[in-house]
Amino acid sequence: MAEKQDIINALKTVYDPEIPVNIWDMGLVYDIAISEKEIVITMTFTSPTCPMMEELLAQVRDAAAGVSGGTPVRVELVWDPPWNLSRMSDAARLELDLTEQGW
After folding, report:
1. What DSSP string describes 22-67?
2. What does the alpha-carbon distance between residue 7 and residue 33 come to, in Å, rounded to a whole number?
């Protein structure tokens, strides 16, 4: 069975093509639930009009499937709670030059 940290490491390889930060550090992933039946990744996007949404969802599914050990992966897209800058990691804020004074 996959370990949560393995899934996180895999998700850190998925980047929004418009932002030089991975989806994990952006705070787009809300939850990772691992059971014997499936792995469920609950995530959001910064905007519901993201033109790359379908491609990124597929990349998330593929990245997690690569370390799932054969366990099926399902990605749930949610909009509540809405994403905001406070969900970003310190590393992501630094990469995007978003210091506390700037956001």
Report:
1. BHHHHT-EEEEEE-SS-EEEEE--S-TT-TTHHHHHHHHHHHHHTT
2. 10
Residue 101 class from Cβ within 10 Å (0-12 exposed, 13-18 middle, 19+ buried)? exposed
Q: Any residues with CB less than 8 A from the CB of 28 and at least 6 apart, and which?
A: 43, 44, 45, 46, 83, 87
User: How far apart are the C-alpha atoms of 44 and 36, rounded to whole Å?
Assistant: 24
pTM: 0.89
Ramachandran area for residue 69 (φ above 0: left; ψ -120 to 50: alpha; else beta) = left
Q: Which value, in Å, is the radius of gyration of the alpha carbons in the chain?
A: 14
What are residue 97's phi and psi, to 5 degrees?
60, 45
Structure tokens at 58: 């597929």
Cα distance between residue 45 and residue 71, in whole Å: 25
Q: Could you report the per-residue pLDDT of 41-99, keeping only the tens digit for each?
A: 999 999 999 899 999 999 999 999 999 999 999 999 999 999 998 899 988 888 888 86
